Amino acid sequence: MAHYQAIGSIPPKRHTQHRRPGAGSTPGELYYEELMGEEGFSSDSSLLYHRNIPSTTIGAAVWEVPDQSTTPNHPLTPRHLKLHDLFEAEAVPGTDVVTGRRLVLGNGDVRISYAVAGAPSPWYRNGIGDECVYVERGRARVETVFGSFEVGEGDYVVIPRATTHRWIPERSTTDPLRAYCIEANSHIAPPKRYLSKYGQLLEHAPYCERDLRQPAGPLLAEDVGASPDEQTEVYIKHRGNGPGGVVGTIHTLPFHPLDVVGWDGCLYPYVFNVRDFEPITGRIHQPPPVHQVFEGWNFVICNFVPRKVDYHPLAIPVPYYHSNVDSDEIMFYVDGDYEARKGSGIGKGSISVHPGGHPHGPQPGATEGSIGVESFDELAVMVDTFRPLELGEGGLAVDDGLYAMSWSKGAGRPAVPGSPHSEG
Question: Which Pfam families match (predicted)?
Fold first, then answer.
């Protein structure tokens, strides 16, 4: 995100001496400068100033990451995955957003997981790619080496690759933290068509820099009630020969990871709330790219928000039937009443999987029923991928097995000529 920020104590010029306060005329010890940069010094970066040498570890162990194995969607089938069935209520208080994720869908470019958490996560960094975590429900504090965020319902939390951080859910008896986790094998950024050649969000973009929340900091160990010398474990997800090419390691540090006294640059975590997305509408139905909010390598993230709909006198507000020739379409239904899916069994917490090569569109009756509607009250997060997605163990566990037949009059079974469920 090429939007320069500077927080805390930094020297006047980069790569020059930056020292701790000394005693009298004796200079203090140097802080340790770390460049966190993308694409081999050729893209966005930030400089972080540490109290400790950031390379230091005193131990390493294997972290058995949650099951990352996948099963092809074969034979090719649209699916309805009921995410809210993934976690039993009694298990939630001991589950965290990092180690408790269950893989729903994945391919070589992106993995989609889900977690319902009541426990603080360990310190964690993803060494494979950026993460975009959508907070469906609940609240949490996210602490990072760049600073902290208070996050809640509707927040996208975008965390650059290799950022050490942890999630601390706010205790609640009504709304546990529900996190929809999109893990890239690349970087995640605003759509290029909404950016100037220097990285500023343009006038036609559906959001701007004012809508982005930067981390509050600097954040040091003593700010969270810890000792700077506290031995700490950091869980690292990285490339390897495990299922999906993902493995894990736990590094033990002889100090607390919150040791950054200051940083500056254009690479850092940030938060964007879906309510700040300004929908783009028109006289006739607008294609899905108008709903795009972020993109990664070979995938995009879109959101469908409450909005006025098409105002041509003969407009049909719900989507036309369409074949995803080049992509799989994954829709996560968060809130509202999704007009196009009426009668399909889909509700809050559902995912629809519409695979490339299969034409899909509104359920029977939804097209006619939408005529004359002036606004949609719906909230959904969509991920479109340009390589086929496979089902993770979480996705397989909550597939309703009926959705593919929902375009037939008999929801859940094929329409048979002469039966009460046929077209007649």
Answer: HgmA_C
